[in-house]
Design a protein that fits this description.
The chain is mostly helical. Helices cover about 45% and strands about 10% of the residues.
């Protein structure tokens, strides 16, 4: 008695950076001179950008940064989960106006030895550290 073949379904395994790198290398060895990258390879590179930075993917796969970044942005605009604002496993931190820095220390020194040190605690209301910095740098001119 012959056992019937039961199709085995395997869970979708996201491609790793190394796997896609190998696919690009195979394509580069077999391609015709100056032929365009196949859409399937571009799509694989875009998908990698969900787990890796665009720069890291470009560096590893030897791709044009601007082209990949554009494709990633278009892909994310078309993604229904992103459009609907669904939870994608990210934690959104709401830093409203009630959030105040605990402390900030800024130290500056001019080439002639003049020094300025600003220690800022809490919310800035009356003092503008940027304007104080500009005044400090102008004083030597």
């Amino acid at each position: 008695m012959r056992a019937s073949a039961i199709p085995v379904t395997r869970p979708a395994i996201p491609p790793t950076l190394e796997n896609i790198q190998q696919q690009f290398e195979i394509w580069r060895k077999r391609r015709r001179c100056r032929s365009e990258i196949p859409e399937a390879l571009w799509q694989s590179a875009v998908e990698l950008c969900w787990e890796h930075s665009v720069w890291e993917v470009c560096r590893t796969l030897r791709l044009n940064y601007a082209k990949l970044k554009e494709r990633v942005q278009k892909s994310r605009q078309r993604d229904p989960a992103v459009q609907q604002g669904l939870d994608l496993g990210f934690v959104r931190l709401g830093f409203g106006s009630s959030m105040v820095p605990s402390e900030c220390l800024v130290e500056m020194e001019t080439p002639d030895g003049a020094k300025m040190r600003m220690s800022i605690r809490g919310a800035l209301r009356e003092v503008d550290p940027l304007e104080l910095s500009r005044a400090f740098w102008r004083q030597g001119q």
